[in-house]
Design a protein that fits this description.
3-stranded mixed β-sheet, 24 helices
Amino acid sequence: MTTSTSLVYLIALPLAGAALLLLGGRRTDKWGHLLATALSASSFGVGVYQLTQMLGRSTEERPVSQKLFDWINVGAFNVDAGLLLDQLSICFVLLITGVGTLIHIYSISYMSHDQDRRRFFAFLNLFIAAMLLLVLGDSYLSLYVGWEGVGLASYLLIGFWNQKPAYATASKKAFVMNRVGDMGLSFAIMIAFATMGTVSFAGVAEQAENTSEAALTGMGIMLLIAAAGKSAQFPLQAWLGDAMAGPTPVSALIHAATMVTAGVYLITRSNFVFDAAPTAQLLVVIVGAITLMFGALIGTAKDDIKKALAASTMSQIGYMILAAGLGPVGYAFAIMHLLTHGFFKAGMFLGAGSVMHGMDDEVNMRKYGALRKFMPITFATFGLGYLAILGVPPFAGFYSKDMIIETAFNAGGVKGIILGSVTLLGAAITAFYMTRVMILTFTGTKRWDENAHPHESPWLMWLPMAILAIGSVSSGFLLSRGDALVNWLHPLFDHHEEHEQHLLEPIVVSGLALTMVAIGIAIAFVKYSRQDVASVAPEDVSVFTKIARQDLMQDRFNETVFMRPGQVLTTTLVATDEVVIDGTVRTVGKIAMGSGSALRGLQNGFVRSYAALILLGAVALVAAIWVVVQ
């Protein structure tokens, strides 16, 4: 492993932008957005430079590290603050800074009328810096600092328009649910140190073979809880839909391309833990499969365009988590889908923002219709992302999602059949609800109010959308050509033995996947294209639709199982503290005060009282002597 002196610039540039804009205040309003964008682009440039340097070195010398300073040195706990850039982290660096820069450019126009635009860009830079620290840290503790920084930045961005109570509540909900996941990461770090004496990735990987399976299983489960919180996976997924309250560029940056992928990064980075803990690895697969279906079903009933895309994000991350849980053969495919998803989902979120921009911030798709005539560029770029997420060849999702479906089937036995069927069903449902989004938004007859004047967005908005659309078309082919990404990541997993089984051949998997996609498209077309769509959601719907509209009752479940019992527990503890603990203290105090008051009466200053007490004492003494003598 070689060393580098330039890794720190990846993080320092956007971090400096955040500091300058926040500390500079209103004096930076006129040019703050340009500075933030330039610094994000500069960080991307450093990332590209690092990639070219890595390509010029041999496989063994590609990872680079940099020690920043001595961080913690307490007894046996010694941790240096350091950075690690290898084949896995460079993928995330380029995704974060590349897509992040495009979103910065988009936001220049999208947020142009917001008086706090400078603060918004400061938060974007802060998020970029925190996310880079998360993927560049060389230990779980360094990762944890970036992990918390991302949580803070997402809280600030989701609640950016916190003058609206609903938006402030949404940011708090995301923050609190992520803290639950963060506890999992905290416990995982504690388990690593207690059982292995180290928290560095290299140290844990080295010690994993000599650590008990029980300890590794516990650590793996804690890491899975952390991933579920950050990546909105079951059972910590309820915050993602509400997080759409933030400005649309936030949805594209945090909830499509970067933050929600942190859980996938954590699991793949910790491959040495999960491969040695089969139970934890199986739980990863189960969580991914459940969330895959959970998000897809929610997406079928959402009329809010951003919430429909959020449900889709939840589902697609489920595909990635499922693939990561399938072991060595699935890690690279999880990352491939993560990268292709970063292009097409970020593009569709920006497309949704473009639609909202042209429709006076209306988010209800039932009040759209026929927008392709008025917003042709948005329609084209969004449409390419739509084809990519469906997995239609030769678009990006075809290469990445089909590989996950194939890997699921090839897991073998009943497990393979179940997982393969789930991924195929998820593909069909995805095709249904994404086709529903396309039809309700861009085709059919117009359903908007007379006061609406839909129009195409300015070039600063559609240019990033166009670039992301190019990625939606080409990224899958480029990453899969000659197994490029698989070979690139292979050195990180080369300590594993791969046992590939072929229940279904690739051509069969592709045929099944395309058939399921065609079925989903056909159902959506018949349901929404051949009949008038009501501008108001009908109340007379099936029970399933009602439940799906309420996010499959996830909030009610959390309220019933966690919040209400928590309130009862808190009330009980407060009452116990008030009655038992405080009551005991008050009783002791009252006894002391009462005894003092009683004894104080004996010291009243009257001579006759003292004489009477002396006489009483003398009589008592004489009586005692008489009793003893007798």
